[in-house]
Amino acid sequence: MGKGIWVFAEQAEGKVRKVTFEMLSAARKIADAKGEQLCAVCLGKDIAGLADSFAPYGADMVYMVTHDLLAQYTTDGYAKALCDLITKEQPSVILFGATVLGRDLSAKVAARVGAGLASDCVDIKLDGSGNITIRRPMYAGKVYADVIFPNASIIAASMRPNVLVPGAPDASRKAEVVTVTPELSATDIRVKVKEVVKTAAGKVDLTEAERIVSGGRGMKAAENFKMLEELAEVIGATVGASRAAVDAGWRPQSDQVGQTGKVVSPNLYIACGISGSIQHYAGMGTSKVIVAINKDSEAPIFSKCDYGVVDDLFKVVPVFTAELKKMMAE
Amino acid sequence: MNSIVCLKQVPDTEAQIRVKPDGSDVVLDGVKFIINPYDEFGIEEALRLKEKAGSGKVTLVCLGPARCVEAIRTGLAMGADDAFHLDDPAFEGGDAIATAKALAEQIKKMQYDIIFCGKQAIDDDQGQVGVALAEFLNLPHACLVTKVEIAPDKKSCTVNRQIVGGEEVIELPLPCVITTQKGLNEPRYASLPGIMKAKKKPLVSVKAADLGLTETGTAAAKTKGVNFSLPPARTAAKLIQGESPEEKAVKLAKVLREEAKVI
Ligand SMILES: Cc1cc2nc3c(=O)[nH]c(=O)nc-3n(C[C@H](O)[C@H](O)[C@H](O)COP(=O)(O)OP(=O)(O)OC[C@H]3O[C@@H](n4cnc5c(N)ncnc54)[C@H](O)[C@@H]3O)c2cc1C
Ligand SMILES: Nc1ncnc2c1ncn2[C@@H]1O[C@H](COP(=O)(O)O)[C@@H](O)[C@H]1O
């Protein structure tokens, strides 16, 4: 048995983020090939109920790291708890979800324990000699590269949500659960969380959404996004926006998709009144199916998407929504 | 308020990136370079803090080859006071961790209240340097910041940062590292007098030996990019035909269900 492949199991308010299961499934194959143990590491407070979530996706072992000071995410608290455990158990690989939290924590942990870190990766595999290589987009998705880890004793990566395909859970699988009480005191945490403002309670975040309906300058006004909200409601999608729509003040910054916004990878991305600039594409180019509704047949988006409707979105979208509603009811 | 802004020079967002035939690296010949857009937010915020405080300095720190001088001068033209350019072939081949280590050694010699880094550099897209720098300087940090408020006693700051599904307001003691997110501010343009003045502002070239670093660049890097390739090209859209927008809408729904199988 090797030293172990770890998956940082991100949870929020008692719910495990989906990317955790995606990573466990992918890492299971690596663990089998390398004869290593696969461990899920979950941090928080009052999270005991989650301990059994990980075995069905391939975890052999589960560390439940619980402490009052981990109730809320702080880099200091989480990093100390996790780094202390890493130093003690010496895993060879640690995977994080490339979420807001995962990217922050992975960079901190890698710097502290001296791991090599690749961010926002889309694939993990073994090369011919059994070394781990991790694929990641660079230059806003204009180029892909494989990352190797020549000088690193620990390999770390953050994996983009929605890209790795989770295997079917196997309820008969069991894992050893180890509860860890980290040594943490209030003075370890230098920052103070004063307030958490939920702007989108109950809404699936864009970065995790399986379906996204986005609007651009072609939406003409903030109130017209109501139309996209309705479409999104029908198909269970999250609404996004181009920078033009955000800069116009029609949508909040947190809705922006693109190079200076969020990077998303849904199964279905519907772009309404978006021209398809290189910077917008940088944020959604890895979506599985891209649909564009745009009245300009010359719009660049039509040269790099799957399905296109050249027409007035104000006439297309309401009928499209109604038709989908009928379909979903069938 | 004394601020340090870590500035990286990167290819323009519109630049076409090519790959060497053997896939060993990207080709950046003939590419137009700019200041990393997120670092412009950092410069702007640092300038505003200085203006608000009525005193202090904004210092740029940049690691990269000779061509970076252009980006540094642009930053100085925006209003930064001086700059350190970590410019040495010994830094070549470094990854985010190697870069953060070198920047940290330079910054350890400096006086500052706050450090700004971008959320990520739009070339390597790693988003690691700011956080790693904070770790190497043993400072607290906040990522994805859209608002910075310095306490009247200048001992702490309160920042708003983006989190999943909302925003978090946190307080950090100064000095600290902030990584910038779009929404923080609207960066100013360099004015003509600014450009003239920038030519005379101090720009110090720093070598690896000046920092007492023995392992830099490739030797300090723990990751290496190989097998560079272009993403599979997406082909042109299949256009949905129809007599009217309504007919196209109905057909689109049908195609998404029956052909693409995504609904
Ligand atoms: C450094 C940098 C970073 C950037 N980052 C981002 C980013 O993160 N995300 C981003 O999106 N952009 C980003 N941009 C901006 C980008 O270059 C484009 O300006 C932006 O994406 C354009 O948004 P848009 O497609 O909504 O608007 P436009 O390009 O104006 O396109 C609007 C489209 O709507 C169509 N339209 C209008 N009316 C209708 C109608 N009635 N029915 C159907 N179609 C209609 C038009 O034909 C047109 O194609 C960035 C730019 C820079 C320089
Ligand atoms: N070579 C560099 N010189 C100065 N600052 C850098 C350099 N590389 C990265 N940074 C800073 O770190 C941020 C994040 O970069 P990265 O981790 O490479 O995505 C950038 O926005 C810069 O503020």
Task: Explain briefly what this protein structure is.
The complex is a heterodimer of chains A (330) and B (263). Helix content of chain A is 26%, strand content 27%. With 330 residues, chain A is an alpha/beta fold.
How does this model look, in words?
- The complex is a heterodimer of chains A (330) and B (263).
- Chain A is an alpha/beta fold.
- Chain A is built from seven helices and 18 strands.
- Chain A has helices at 18-34, 75-89, 100-113, 225-235, 243-247, 278-284, 313-329, and strands spanning 5-8, 11-12, 15-16, 38-44, 61-66, 93-97, 116-121, 123-126, 132-138, 143-148, 155-159, 176-180, 192-198, 211-215, 238-241, 268-272, 289-294, 307-310.
- In chain A, strand 14 (211-215), helix 4 and strand 15 (238-241) form a beta-alpha-beta unit.
- In chain A, helix 2 (75-89) packs across helix 3 and helix 4 runs parallel beside helix 7.
- The longest helix of chain A is centred in the N-terminal third of the chain and has 17 residues, at 18-34.
- Chain A is globular.
- Chain A starts with a strand and ends with a helix.
- The mean pLDDT of chain A is 96.
- Chain B is α/β, with parallel strands linked by helices.
- Chain B has two domains: 2-220, HUPs (Rossmann fold, 3-Layer(aba) Sandwich), CATH 3.40.50.620; 232-263, no CATH class.
- Chain B is built from seven helices and 15 strands.
- In chain B, the strands form three sheets. A nine-stranded mixed beta sheet of chain B has the order 11-10-9-12-8-1-6-7-13, sandwiched between helices.
- In chain B, helix 2 crosses helix 5 (192-198).
- Chain B is globular and about 65 Å long.
- The mean pLDDT of chain B is 97.
- Strand 10 (143-148) of chain A pairs antiparallel with strand 14 (224-229) of chain B, so a sheet runs across the interface.
- The structure holds flavin-adenine dinucleotide and adenosine monophosphate.
